[in-house]
Amino acid sequence: MAEPVPVTVPVALPRQVRHLVLVLGDQLDAQSCALDGFDAAQDVVWMAEVAEESTHVWSAKQRIAIFLSAMRHFAQDLIARGLPLVYTRLAAQDTPANPDNPGNPGTLAQALSQAITQLQPAALVLTAPGDWRVLQSLRTVAKQHDLALDLRDDTHFFSAVREFAAYAEGRKQLRLEYWYRALRQKHGILMEGKEPVGGQWNFDADNRESFGKTGPQNVPPPSRFAPDAITQEVIALVNTRFASHPGKLDSFGWPVTREQALLALQAFTAQRLPLFGQYEDAMWAGEAWLYHSHLSCALNLKLLNPREVVQAAVDAYHAGQAPLAAVEGFVRQILGWREYVRGIYWTQMPDYLSLNALNAQADLPAWYWSGQTEMACLKDAITQTLELGYAHHIQRLMVTGLYALLLGVKPQAVHAWYLGVYVDAVEWVELPNTLGMGQFGDGGLMASKPYVASGKYIQRMSNHCKGCQYDPALSTGDKACPFTTLYWDFLMRHEVLLKKNPRMAMQLKNLARLEAPARDAIAAQAQAHRDAQL
Description:
mainly alpha, Rossmann fold, Serine Threonine Protein Phosphatase 5, Tetratricopeptide repeat, DNA Cyclobutane Dipyrimidine Photolyase, subunit A, domain 3, two-stranded antiparallel ribbon, 20 helices, 7 strands, globular
């Protein structure tokens, strides 16, 4: 059998296995529905680390490390609870297979097939995965071995996919707002009877300020956790096995256990939630953490339940520890947006992955993997991403994502980058955010318009433009900001399509003021910039 997780007291496997319960790397929930009815006398948990999950997209070291460390900690917890476990580990390098030690086969499908051959279970049990590719792969293995696969709804979420499917039926556009309101009413969150607390459903008008000239002041430190022996072992493994992958692990400090995740949740609600809404869209050079929660990875690994996260924020409001605007804005991210993008993913796949409404065909610039660019905002966001595996939502949407959209990068290439570099990236949440919201690849199924802006937006929301060699007010010339040049070029290239969208009317009205010579100069500068990057 493959090398097991190191444990103090191994748990004996049953002679005859009734259920082989599959636990994936983003399903680290002790209350998982896959474990409902588990009988240690006749059931076995199966987990596997395989190289494929780090190479099907070129994953950065921080992302690989957090999955492996969290999986190994969870495995130890399962064994401490007395649950029989078969766990296949990655080694620093593959060794030749032999009948007594078949080693790590490299893919989830091969690892599962190997375990089925060894254990001969009567059936497989699985909580619905967060990745279409993985689900199809595991279904194929079950069919090949003529085994029943008990696929269970993921009760981690507030809603089931079938609920969203019923909501989506017959709708040409799937907007967040009404789905979010329905969930708030159904679960009684921030409600007074049938009406929202405070008399309105969202408080965007009270949120999303910039830091001003003085910048962020006295920002509480993030919750970071020193790597224990398991995590240190994982870091050494990743630095050896995945040495050529981007990023670095010197600063690794993510929560990898439920206990650490709960501490991070407590720290956020006590220290940063009060100003979360006010500054949720603000950026500042060299300041990665600001007032954001940094909980998305713990949520997506299932170390935290969204119900407890939402309740913690609501409790802070009722205790007078955080204003309603901040709490509602945060709750909307969890109860609204997170549930919404999952519904989009599972009702639209697999066709969704191939959508490209703007026919964008450019390659992703190579410096997305290094941060070596003269554009200050992009350099800061990408360097931070590679060092920490993290960037907040505006850095993703309105810096790295905006630039790719304006440049005309193929959305599938943008998707692969986001899926590979961020620690919280699981395809069900990352793909709609990237292809739909960020790149308008679905033609407006999600977003009511392309999220495009000139460099003036970045100047307004950050200090990146101060000291940058480019001027966001200029669209042509040596000092022209590439965001501004590409913004006008984007509007010109897609003008016919965008005229059909009433929400683009103001931007197109401004475009109409440009005389033909100005348009030609912008188009020429945009093409020159594009050629230089690609």
